[in-house]
Amino acid sequence: MPRATWPLRNGRPVVSVLLTLAATGHQIGCNLLADTGAGAAHVGFEVLLQENDCHRCGGIPAQGVLLGGAYVGSFPVFVIRVQIPALSFDHYVRAVGVPQVPTGLDGVAAFRFLNRFTYGNFGMPQQFGLET
Amino acid sequence: MSALASVENQNRELARRINEEARSNPASPYAGKFVGIANGQVVTVSEDLDEVVRRLRAVEPDPQKAFCVEAGLDYNQVQDIWSAR
After folding, report:
1. pLDDT tens digits for B24-61?
2. Which residues in chain A are closer than 8 Å to B50, comparing Cβ atoms?
3. Apex CA A14: angle with CA A11 and CA A15, to 5°?
4. Which residue of A45, A130, B8, B80 sits 20 to 30 Å from the alpha carbon of A108, by its own alpha carbon?
5. In tens digits, what is the pLDDT along chain A, a chain of 132 residues?
6. Which of A40, A38, A48 is nearest to A77 (CA)?
7. B64 lies in some domain
């Protein structure tokens, strides 16, 4: 089974993904906090990103969502392309556009995204990884 | 209202009605599917979001004139995000 692992950042689990910029087609790397407590299995989003990044990636508007907890209120959602080359993952997913993301990171990978994979530390306490 | 804002409103209103239908009628052809809308019209319906995006981009290259909805979800339910900032 293909597996990708990444070192913890400030002790927190992350996943690294590639986004594609609409204007140039260039790819940018993003480190997302892996947060199984973000949303549920059947919600209308898979990741949270800065709203500006959603626009830069040419996101297609999708049904907005209501959030509580660290983010409170109504937020827009966009469909964007997300890639994890090591896993041959290349799909469109729904990203909530938020004004701020966790310090030092580029966004949040919510439970619906992580739940596509087998996830965990795979016996390596300083790593977090995804397996298909 | 600008032409773009009008299209966006039409897309959102159609998505709202489709979701309402899917939630009230599990036999709806939209229930549990991703629905792609462009310029106020349903363009594609599929269980595969990638396929919906491909069709939408082929029909309407401007993302602002397109819209996606997963029909049947409760978008009025608050989803908690526990991540610390």
Report:
1. 999 999 999 999 999 999 999 999 999 999 999 999 99
2. 91-92
3. 160
4. B8
5. 899 999 999 999 999 999 999 999 999 999 999 999 999 999 999 999 999 999 999 999 999 999 999 999 999 999 999 999 999 999 999 999 999 999 999 999 999 999 999 999 999 999 999 999
6. A48
7. yes
Return the CATH number at A75.
2.40.70.10
Q: Which domain holds residue B53?
A: 3-70
Which residues, numbered 21 to 50 in chain A, qualify as contacts with chain B under a Cβ-Cβ cut-off of 8 Å? 22, 33, 35, 37-40, 42-45, 48
The closest alpha carbon to A31, from A111, A109, A116, A88, belongs to: A109
Interface-testing mutation among A92, A98, A113, with chain B (most B C-beta atoms within 10 A)? A92
Report the C-alpha gap between A26 and A18 in whole angstroms: 10
* Candidates B68, B77, B82; nearest CB to A62: B68
The position carrying tokens 């998505």 is B15
**Assembly ipTM:** 0.94
Residues of chain A neighbouring B76 (CB-CB closer than 8 A): 66
